[in-house]
Amino acid sequence: MFILEEVHHKFSGVLLLTAFSASITANFVAYTIFGVQPALDLGSLLQFPLEHYAHLVIMGIIVAVMGWAYQEVLMYMPNLYKKIPIPPYLYGFLPFILVIPIGIFLPEMLGGGTGIISLISSGRISTLLLVGIFLFRFGYSHISYGSGLPGGIFIPVLSLGALLGAIYGNGAIWITGIEDIFIRSFIVYAMGGLLTAVTKAPLTAVMLITEMTGTVTHLMPLAVVCLTAYVVADFLGSDPVYEELLQKKIHQIPKVFEGEVIEFEVSVEPDSDLDGMMARYLRLPYGSKLVKVRRHNNEFIPHQDTVFWSGDELFFTADSGFVSEVKKQLDKLN
Prior knowledge:
By secondary structure, this protein is of the alpha+beta class. It has 3 domains: 1-37; 40-249, Clc chloride channel (Orthogonal Bundle), CATH 1.10.3080.10; 259-333, Regulator of K+ conductance, C-terminal domain (Alpha-Beta Plaits, 2-Layer Sandwich), CATH 3.30.70. It has 12 helices and 4 strands, in the order H-H-H-H-H-H-H-H-H-H-H-E-E-E-E-H. One of its GO terms (molecular function) is chloride channel activity. Residues 251-332 form the RCK C-terminal domain.
């Protein structure tokens, strides 16, 4: 489901068969080696009461905002490290130095977070302690990623979601008097909600939580939280985190793309740099293209050896997010 929804963004029979076959094979091998018990077994949940569904919407909004904040900090941290006056290959020493005392005095704070999820799912913990653990893991995970030594996103996000769910559950119990037996439900639903907000993959989140709990009785409340988180995250302008990381990796800025292709024309002025220039030497910004030339009421498609003449009308297409940059560069040549 993750491959279909997050990686390829489309459903097809061939893709489904390939991804499903690979998943089943990997699952069989994992079962053979590690056993059939899931690595993160949350157990079954009680049916969530319909009269408390307002909590799910409110919690969905909260986890969406936190998911947006998570991505914003995640993308900013590498820039923050660049301000440190040390070579990039030494960035990893900062989380390394921090992890030593943490490993000695608070070893349970390290790792992906499965231990923390199991801990807070087994009993009620004070809100102040939960907030402290959340802030610590939120901060340290970004310190680790920003250094170029990422410790993963999937499980850390689930652990942060579990902490948010426990914090919200404690607040709901204190303010509205909802039964404390539903604290684990809040934890599970918030995990799915935060994962949805960060990855923009609600179906994956729902399927993942369903596998962890081994029951479908929670599908409706979980879907409400995930849908709310998805809509709010989309409203905040949040993009899938893996796409953001990919675009950052290949030095592109996806937010510049607006998805609308604009066509515009430029007339070659006499004695300008464009006048007499060969098309092969015209360097256009990314996301733009010269599509045709109009000369003396005749139109033709240019090739690399086409020479622009004074009075030629050059027709360009570009994403609307790049039009101003393309025009600015052409103005310098014209």
